[in-house]
Q: What sequence folds into this?
């Protein structure tokens, strides 16, 4: 690890880290109590890095090598129930193997943080990125956001715990990172100092729900039709409240670490006067921004919205930004076979979000980059051009265009 | 047989009057009349005392037991998923250890117990329990074995006795016996596979009296990850009158079909040594249960033969079905 020491209060050092290593550094800084590991590419390197951090005495944490993702996630859930700050993660089919545990972690209103190194689901085997693994959480009462750089990944472990553990929220947090493009690409990362993180992230306090002999509660007894609706409603309210808590947490983060996030929910790139934008999640932001610049050089008013938070979905904020546009092209690095207009997952939420507007932009969808296939700058330019055409009223037979498909 | 028994420092309950009066699993549940698993639950809670945290895996003892606003649990209790018995215990034990070591909560001994049924512990969750038994956390997993998925109308599991009628294995005009699997040997399997696990036992809720409570205390005293498999006659699932629950447990042990033993630091200690005390015919145990009403003599003979083999021919009778041989391969 190449290290440049910087003597400031807030940043301890600059380091060359990939996404996985950056997350591991953040887990160290968050003083996590219990970590459960199980290997699957590409997220595994987070756990590789953490085991070394613990072996070197840089973090005091239980580190359990579980027998499966299901056990891994259950271990973390129950560690969280006794008041321990807990961390796990997975990718692709491993994530799906543990899915039952993920669902109950949310319905139990526990708040561990999970990293998802996005990976295609089997079959056939593919290591590369696809977002279906993390997106499967979208209706389950989780906080779900994407990092697009290693720096963001590091910072969103800290931001994620702070939001998840907030008494108004108490929801588990999933931080997604594109497999390979982020998990295994190196960036120069500013690593915060422990003192600054302490100021930002208070200790985990589960309050009256902590499982301990001094607090003899019964958690999750059978309720049936008597109470399930009321409990679901509480989850619903927590997810709603999260929308107002998230901006406050980013304000606090900006106060301590400098003005890093203008908009907590998504980054706008050249959107101010844009007529047409692409919307995407994760590492595709990089080629997309370059494509926007190139179209701008040709005088086309293009922009890019890097959607960070998917749950809670930033409805009002996106409505305000996308509502100004003539055309919106959604990049879906996922599939939703048989869904309305045969689009991906993200486009359904974007269209639903824009529907109440009287002046709606033309929305078109792109499915691309599946199984880790590269989405190039040229691909992004083509997507922008198609979106410009849709905005100009040119009818296409299908809502969806597959990008980079071998035909 | 080893001449010296291991010494374990625990407070043994010698007489029924010595049993603690305090209940930690009390009213509020709605288990059936004659439910032996409820006895097991009450007894382990009593034996382990107030400084205990419990997870209960999905199963009849969750659904019938712990209803919102009428919890029977005096000690803290949490539901866990069907296959998560082992991992729930690891999670709690790891969390408590980290918090104590880091000074976030006071240092003290807190008993961590998971209670899972035979479908949860013996079938779905056995990988997680295996993982738990490889750790160095202090935890106890109790598998309550009523030989069925009793929560969902009595379906066969890997622990159901050969030949039994369940809703997945009804006798029919073409197939008399639908359940053709021999009962899984869960406790011994876990003991054999986890040599650093210091305590594995089998128990019956009521026979011999106080035995299960003392085994619970032994497990918690020895520490590390431990496992107890209890044999719980179920009036509804096995089809007998609830007044005979204890008797059925006793007959199961005395017929040798369910061996009672402890494995402490690798040493097998029989709680009820059927070789010395003699075995009653398994027929006496089988004929009192409606679930075996369709068996014919040939089936009963087969079960008797398997039980005889278990006691007469296994290298460690009733425990491990190996025979050590001297022959060299090839």
A:
């Amino acid at each position: 690890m190449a290290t440049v020491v910087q003597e400031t209060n807030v940043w301890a050092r600059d380091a060359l880290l990939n996404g996985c290593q950056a997350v591991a550094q953040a887990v160290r800084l968050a003083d996590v109590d219990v970590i459960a590991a199980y290997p699957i590419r590409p997220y595994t390197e987070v756990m590789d890095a953490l085991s070394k951090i613990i072996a070197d005495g840089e973090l005091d944490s239980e580190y359990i090598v579980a027998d499966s993702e299901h056990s891994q996630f259950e271990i973390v859930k129950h560690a969280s129930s006794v008041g321990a700050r807990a961390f796990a993660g997975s990718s692709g089919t491993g994530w799906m193997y543990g899915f039952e545990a993920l669902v109950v972690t949310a319905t139990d209103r526990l708040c561990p943080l999970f990293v998802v190194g996005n990976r295609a689901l089997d079959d056939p085997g593919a290591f590369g990125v696809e977002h279906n693994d993390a997106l499967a959480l979208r209706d389950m009462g989780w906080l779900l956001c994407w990092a697009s750089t290693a720096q963001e990944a590091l910072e969103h472990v800290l931001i994620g715990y702070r939001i998840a553990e907030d008494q108004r929220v108490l929801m588990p947090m999933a931080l997604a990172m594109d497999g390979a493009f982020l998990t295994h690409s190196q960036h120069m990362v500013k690593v915060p100092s422990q003192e600054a993180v302490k100021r930002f992230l208070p200790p985990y306090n589960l309050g009256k729900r902590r499982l301990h002999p001094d607090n003899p509660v019964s958690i999750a007894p059978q309720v049936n039709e008597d109470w399930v609706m009321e409990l679901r409603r509480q989850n619903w309210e927590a997810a709603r409240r999260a929308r107002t808590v998230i901006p406050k947490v980013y304000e606090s983060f900006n106060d301590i670490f400098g003005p890093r996030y203008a908009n907590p929910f998504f980054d706008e790139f050249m959107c101010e006067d844009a007529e047409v934008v692409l919307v995407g999640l994760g590492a595709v932001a990089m080629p997309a921004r370059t494509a926007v610049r190139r179209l701008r050089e040709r005088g086309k008013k293009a922009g890019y919205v890097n959607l960070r938070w998917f749950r809670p979905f930033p409805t009002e904020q996106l409505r305000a930004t996308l509502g100004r546009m003539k055309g919106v092209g959604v990049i879906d690095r996922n599939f939703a076979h048989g869904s309305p207009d045969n689009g991906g997952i993200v486009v359904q939420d974007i269209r639903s979000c824009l529907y109440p507007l009287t002046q709606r932009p033309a929305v078109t969808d792109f499915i691309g980059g599946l199984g880790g296939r590269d989405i190039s700058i040229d691909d992004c330019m083509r997507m922008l051009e198609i979106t410009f055409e849709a905005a100009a009223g040119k009818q296409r037979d299908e809502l969806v265009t597959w990008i980079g498909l071998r035909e | 047989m080893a001449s010296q028994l291991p010494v374990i420092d625990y407070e043994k309950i010698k007489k029924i009057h010595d049993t603690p009066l305090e209940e930690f699993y009390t009213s509020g549940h709605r288990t059936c009349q004659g439910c032996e698993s409820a006895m097991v639950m009450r007894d382990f809670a009593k034996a382990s005392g107030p400084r205990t945290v419990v997870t209960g895996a999905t199963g009849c003892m969750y659904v019938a037991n712990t209803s919102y606003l009428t919890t029977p649990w005096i000690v803290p209790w949490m539901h866990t998923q069907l296959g998560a018995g082992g991992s729930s215990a690891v999670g709690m034990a790891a969390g408590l250890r980290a918090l104590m070591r880091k000074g976030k909560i006071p240092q003290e001994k807190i008993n961590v117990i998971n209670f899972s049924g035979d479908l949860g512990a013996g079938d779905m969750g056995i990988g997680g329990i295996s993982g738990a038994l490889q750790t160095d956390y202090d935890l106890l997993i109790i598998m309550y074995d009523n030989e069925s998925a009793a929560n969902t109308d009595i379906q066969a599991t890997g622990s159901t006795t050969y030949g039994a009628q369940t809703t997945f294995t009804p006798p029919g005009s073409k197939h008399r016996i639908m359940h053709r699997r021999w009962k899984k040997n869960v406790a011994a399997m876990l003991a054999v596979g986890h040599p650093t696990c210091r305590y594995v036992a089998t128990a019956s809720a009521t026979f011999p009296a106080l035995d299960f409570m003392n085994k619970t205390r032994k497990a918690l005293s020895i520490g590390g990850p431990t496992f107890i498999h209890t044999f719980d006659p179920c009036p509804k699932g096995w089809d007998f009158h609830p007044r005979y629950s204890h008797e059925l447990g006793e007959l199961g042990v005395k017929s040798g079909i369910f061996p009672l033993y402890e494995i402490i630091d690798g040493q097998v200690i029989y709680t009820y040594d059927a070789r010395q005390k003699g075995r009653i015919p398994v027929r006496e145990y089988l004929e009192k249960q409606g679930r075996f009403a369709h068996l014919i003599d040939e089936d009963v003979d087969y079960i008797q033969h398997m039980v005889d083999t278990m006691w007469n021919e296994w290298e460690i009778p009733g425990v491990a079905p190996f025979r050590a041989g001297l022959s060299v391969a090839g």
